[in-house]
Design a protein that fits this description.
43% of the residues lie in helices and 16% in strands. The protein is α/β, with parallel strands linked by helices. An eight-stranded parallel β-barrel has the order 1-2-3-4-5-6-7-8, surrounded by five helices. The chain binds 1,3-dihydroxyacetonephosphate (13P). The site of 1,3-dihydroxyacetonephosphate (13P) has 14 residues, from strand 8.
Length: 250
C-alpha cells in the first residue's frame, strides 16, 4: 500500500509576506493523515518555511540542487545546505530545468546519485513534449529519461525515490492529461522499474503533474498507478492545495 504524496512546486513565485500567509492557511487545513504533504519553495525561503512547518505534517523540499558537493560554483546550492535547512526531498529534472537550463539526462542522473548519497529523497521528473506525444514517442522519451538514471544510479538508489510524470504540454497550460492518458504512462513507468526490480516497482510512488487543480485531482488520483500529484499553480492557493491534498487522502 503506497501512501499518496502531494507536492507543491511553488517555482519562482511569492515573497516572504505571501509565503507566510500561504503557510498559515496550509498549516491548519491540510489533512493530518492519509496523505503526505510537501512544499517546495524557492530556496531563499526554505528557512522561513521550515520555521512555519514546525508542529505541522508538512514536509519541506527544494526545487533543484547542484550535483557538486561544495566549492567554487557561484550561484549554486549544495545538498548538504538543503539538508542543513531541513529539506527531505529535492525535485530533479523538472522540464523547466531541462528545457530552459539545458539539463541533460546525464546531469539529472548525477544529481540523483548525489541526492541519494546525501540521504535526501529525489523526485525525478519525466515527461514528453506535445510534438513527442503527437509523434507517438511518449513512452520512448519517458523510458529514455528513466533508464538514464536507473543505469547510472542503480535500481537500489530508487528505494526512497519518487517519480513525477509531467507531460510538458500540460504544465501551466490548463490542459490536463486525461485520467486514462495518465494511467497509461504511469503503468508503463512502473513496468519499466519492474524490469529492474519488482519490489521497488510495487513500492515507488509515481506522481502526476500538469495543471492539477481542485476540480480534476480526484479523478486523476483514482487511477491505480497515480500515487498523488506534483502541483504548480494550484499549490499557490491554500484552499486549492488543501482540496488537492484531501482528494489524494480520500
Ligand atoms: P502546473 O500545475 O502549474 O501545471 O505546474 C506543474 C508543474 O510543473 C509542477 O512541477
Amino acid at each position: 500500500m503506497r501512501t499518496a504524496l502531494v507536492a507543491g512546486n511553488w517555482k519562482m513565485n511569492g515573497d516572504s509576506g505571501f509565503i507566510s500567509e500561504l503557510m498559515t492557511g496550509l498549516k491548519t487545513d491540510v489533512p493530518a493523515s492519509g496523505v503526505e504533504v510537501l512544499v517546495c519553495p524557492p530556496s531563499v525561503y526554505l528557512s522561513q518555511v521550515k520555521v512555519q512547518t514546525e508542529g505541522s505534517v508538512i514536509a519541506l523540499g527544494a526545487q533543484n540542487v547542484s550535483e557538486q558537493k561544495n566549492g567554487a560554483f557561484t550561484g549554486e546550492i549544495s545538498l548538504s545546505m538543503l539538508q542543513d535547512l531541513g529539506c527531505e526531498y529535492v525535485i530533479l529534472g523538472h522540464s523547466e530545468r531541462r528545457s530552459i537550463y539545458a539539463e541533460t539526462d546525464e546531469l539529472v542522473a548525477q544529481k540523483f546519485i548525489a541526492t541519494v548519497e546525501t540521504g535526501l529523497k529525489p523526485i525525478l521528473c519525466v515527461g514528453e513534449t506535445l510534438a513527442e506525444r503527437e509523434a507517438d514517442q511518449t513512452l520512448e522519451v519517458v523510458g529514455r529519461q528513466i533508464r538514464a538514471v536507473v543505469e547510472a544510479a542503480g535500481i537500489e538508489a530508487f528505494a526512497d525515490a519518487v517519480i513525477a510524470y509531467e507531460p510538458v504540454w500540460a504544465i501551466g497550460t490548463g490542459k490536463t492529461a486525461t485520467p486514462e492518458q495518465a494511467q497509461e504512462v504511469h503503468a508503463a513507468i512502473r513496468e519499466m522499474i519492474a524490469q529492474s526490480d519488482a519490489g521497488t516497482a510495487a513500492k515507488i510512488r509515481i506522481l502526476y503533474g500538469g495543471s492539477v487543480n481542485a476540480g480534476n485531482a480526484a479523478e486523476l488520483f483514482a487511477n491505480e498507478d497515480v500515487d498523488g500529484g506534483l502541483v504548480g499553480g494550484a499549490s499557490l492557493k491554500a484552499n486549492d492545495f488543501v482540496a488537492i491534498c484531501q482528494a489524494a487522502g480520500a
